[in-house]
Request: fold
Amino acid sequence: MKTLIIITFVCTLFIQGCTDPEYVVQFDETPYGFSHGELPAPELPTDYPLTQQRVTLGRRLFHDGQLSSTGTQSCSSCHSQAAGFSDNRKYSIGVRGLPGTRQGMPLINLAWHRRGFFWDGRSPTLREQALHPIRDTLEMDESLDNVVKKLQASKVYREQFVRAFGNDSITPERIGIALEQFMLTLVSTQSKFDKVVRGYDLFSESEERGRQLFMREFDPTGRTKGAECFHCHAEPFFTNDRFMNNGLDDDASFRDLGRELVTGSPTDRAKFKVPTLRNITRTPPYMHDGRFTSLEEVVRFYNTGVKKSSTVDPLMQFNLKPGLNLSVHDEQDLVEFLKTLTDEVFLTNPLYRMP
Reply:
């Protein structure tokens, strides 16, 4: 009997605690511990500094199908962590079952990007980019007003917006900011390449030879071999964050005008953003239209397949026919080096999954 009374008393206290009218969800400004490894510190947003609660909210939104009209498609549907936050399909499939028009770009080390987002750079900021797929009829096909209504109906979300922003006002701007904050935390710095740079590992003979080819310029005299890769994919980011025509097609074969569709300038015709090579083994197919399915195809293209056009970048001058004169062995070594850019810690980090 005495034991029953004690249990009843404890349960009463628990229920009172849970229904305490004085309990309120509070704004939490605890900073997010942004880690960038050996990479230089990026310029993070100052209007809304990264906080643990805003990142958590963005992480939840990133994985939530409610952002789509059918409730079945989230950002992560087309940006899978195992695929380097890209899509291994040639074109992503939206809620209507229709394919997009370009290959899904990987979301890696975006905190250092300064020249716009998407293949054509049409979004100047990451928070603006985050809202585009929601409204795109080929992707999530939903209105921002409907997304707001769905989130407002959720007590969990209302409370999370209080923790993240100070009140439960849910707006498209805040949704974009939260998604931006999460995507800024997607930092890859733990590949074998990084470990070798830090002195914790060693390249194999093939990987080292591939690295040397990657980092060398082409020598017209033929005394040394170089693959010219580093001009556009320099370490440590393995992208130059620029828009370039890398010689996929000649003028008569352009199907996608790329950056020109944004700027209206013919000098930007068929130029696309240079993607990072970090985790490149996990992000096939390759190029803006997913035309190459393997790294071997990509390397072979840069060795012998670059085409001349009116806007092909001058850096491609030595890649034009007859090409770089790399042997099959050279091409294999380059692929082995590219494999060292795979970051298993990044690809399996539980902090990037649905909270």
